[in-house]
Amino acid sequence: PDERTLVLIKPDAVRRGLVGEIVSRFERKGLRIDAMQTRTLDGDFADQHYAEHVDKPFYPPLKDFMTSGPLVALVLSGDQVIDVVRGMIGATDGRKAAAGTIRGDLALSNRENLVHASDSPDSAKREIALWFPELG
Ligand code: CMP
Hints:
Blueprint: E1 3-9, H1 11-15, H2 19-29, E2 32-39, H3 43-49, H4 59-66, E3 71-78, H5 81-89, H6 102-106, E4 115-117, H7 121-131
């Protein structure tokens, strides 16, 4: 049975005109797009999405960044999609992410790293319920 994961194409990617490039990589991989929507976050929603990071030192600038402009939220599905997408996006820090990954090819920052993806079945469930409650 296919899994689902939540992906965010972050405001830096929208500003840089990379939405099509990033969505195209997921489509070419054979993943399905179950939902896709542009949103601009307010601070409360950012806090809910990043509940596990709100007390970390990197969070205040991350919150400013994530609320700085529109982003694109997607729900993707496919065989082992959570791990597959994590592999496709690469390590958090774009300077260290492997070539061939989205961050490795296109990002040069630890914060402005173009994409977010759920990191486990529990976080996928929580994040999909937060962003797309109608998919429940
Ligand atoms: P993401 O996968 O969305 O999960 C948490 C985000 O916090 C991460 O991508 C980065 O955008 C950001 N982040 C994580 N660690 C750091 C860090 N050390 N410095 C700055 N930003 C970070």
